């Protein structure tokens, strides 16, 4: 699961989508909520399947470098029940 905050900049296509497309085989938004007093900051949660699990640090770094993206957290669930 991936969670991050994004400050809307008025673009129709958010710039973080290109990073998701580069690194993820699949991604799906599971929750979006408005945070902060301005109402323009969104906290976005996604289910993601990375193309290459060995590049998770690069993925987080590149996402953090996107203008408006903050508080990037990537959670991994590798426990098999």
User: Per CATH, what is the topology?
Assistant: Alpha-Beta Plaits
Adjacency order of strands in the biggest sheet: 2-3-1-4
Q: What fraction, in percent, of the residue positions are helical?
A: 10-25%
CATH class assignment = Alpha Beta
End-to-end Cα distance, whole Å, is 18 Å
**What is the CATH superfamily?**
LOR/SDH bifunctional enzyme, conserved domain
Secondary-structure class: alpha+beta
- How much of the polypeptide forms β-strand, as a percent range? 35-45%
User: Spans with pLDDT under 50 lasting ≥5 residues?
Assistant: none
Name given to the CATH architecture: 2-Layer Sandwich
Mean pLDDT: 90
* Count of alpha/pi helices: 2
What value does the Rg take, in angstroms?
A: 13 Å
- Characterize the biggest β-sheet: 4 strands, antiparallel
Query: What is the molecular shape?
Result: globular
Sketch the topology as an H/E string, one letter per element: EHEEHE
Number of strands: 4
SSE blueprint:
Layout: E1 2-7, H1 16-23, E2 24-35, E3 41-50, H2 56-64, E4 69-74
Antiparallel strand pairs: 1-3, 1-4, 2-3
Helix pairs in contact: 1-2
Structure report:
There is one protein chain. The protein is of the alpha+beta class and 81 residues long. The protein has a single domain (2-74), classed as LOR/SDH bifunctional enzyme, conserved domain (Alpha-Beta Plaits, 2-Layer Sandwich). The chain is built from 2 helices and 4 strands, in the order E-H-E-E-H-E. It has helices spanning 16-23, 56-64; strands at 2-7, 24-35, 41-50, 69-74. It has a 4-stranded antiparallel beta sheet with strand order 2-3-1-4, with helices on one face. It is globular. It starts with a strand and ends in a 7-residue tail after the last strand. The model has no long low-confidence stretch (mean pLDDT 90).
